[in-house]
Amino acid sequence: MNDVSAPGGRKIRASVCMATYRGAPFVEEQIASILAELGADDELVIVDDASPDETAGVIDRIRDGRVRLVRAPINRGYVRTFEEAVGLSRGEYIFLSDQDDVWIPGRLELMLAALAESQVVASNFDVLDGGPRPWIPRLRSRDSGRRLANLWGILIGYRAYYGCGMAFRREAARYFTPIPSYVRESHDLWLAICGNIVGSVTHLDQSTIYRRLHDENQTPAGWRSLPRILSARVMLLRLMLEAFRRFRSRP
């Protein structure tokens, strides 16, 4: 487990973990919305995935002691970058964040309240500037305890678990990390699977972020080919078995 204290002995409450890549146009606005939510005992851990643009430079110019920037020497993809950020985090509560969204005021405290009862919390989002949402239905609080229904929803693709709207307690990191080596996308679904297998997930009815949908988003916006859909379903089944194995093998 990471040392939860910052230099000087200050205990870290919440760690926001962000992976960046080619994020120069929007990352400063996102960071500003996050820092407005954080307290003095929180941190923002950013791992830049060897961006070829000015992303790291934009972040480096932000003068705030709560921001920690790590520059990866080579590009590894966003799953491994998020995994590194989580590994570097020191907080009791870990939030995942994309580089191009905007946090809705009150997000941090709302999700911390949910984490007092559950190991994982997942919230909804609205689209920045009121654009159309993806077709997947919003999460509902009344489904929080429906573990099998949630796992089935993950498998067939109608449970709206997005990493940018999720957070978890430090203790859940023992299931979440290391992320299985065959995972190249959908780290958020892996986290949701872990939380549901453990039986400790809270869905929030509220939206806590404004998502910025654009051509550079990593989350696919349209329909995939049948082979890719089938491959993703096989991966999700493997992840469910892996989460169950980790849950059974850990005290």
Q: Can you put this structure into words, describing what you see?
A:
The structure is a single chain. The chain is an alpha/beta fold. The protein has a single domain, classed as Spore Coat Polysaccharide Biosynthesis Protein SpsA, Chain A, CATH 3.90.550.10. The chain has helices at 27-35, 55-60, 78-88, 107-115, 147-156, 173-176, 187-198, 226-249, and strands spanning 14-20, 43-48, 67-71, 93-97, 102-103, 120-127, 166-169, 201-211. The chain has an eight-stranded mixed β-sheet with strand order 3-2-1-4-7-6-8-5, with helices on both faces. Helix 1 (27-35) links the parallel strand 1 (14-20) and strand 2 (43-48). Helix 5 (147-156) packs antiparallel against helix 7. The two termini are 15 Å apart.
Could you give a short description of this structure?
This protein has 251 residues and is α/β, with parallel strands linked by helices.
Number of domains: 1
Oligomer, anyone? Answer: single chain
CATH-level-2 architecture: Alpha-Beta Complex
Q: What share of residues is helical?
A: 25-40%
Mean pLDDT: 92
- Biggest sheet strand line-up: 3-2-1-4-7-6-8-5
User: How much beta, percentage-wise?
Assistant: 15-25%
Unreliable stretches covering 5 or more consecutive residues: none
Gap between N and C termini: 15 Å
How many strands in all? Answer: 8
CATH top level is Alpha Beta
CATH superfamily: Spore Coat Polysaccharide Biosynthesis Protein SpsA, Chain A
Q: What is the radius of gyration computed over CA atoms, rounded to a whole number of angstroms?
A: 17 Å
Largest β sheet strand count, sense and barrel closure: 8 strands, mixed
Order of helices and strands: EHEHEHEEHEHEHHEH
> How does the helix and strand content classify structurally?
alpha/beta
Approximate shape = globular
Q: Helical segment tally?
A: 8
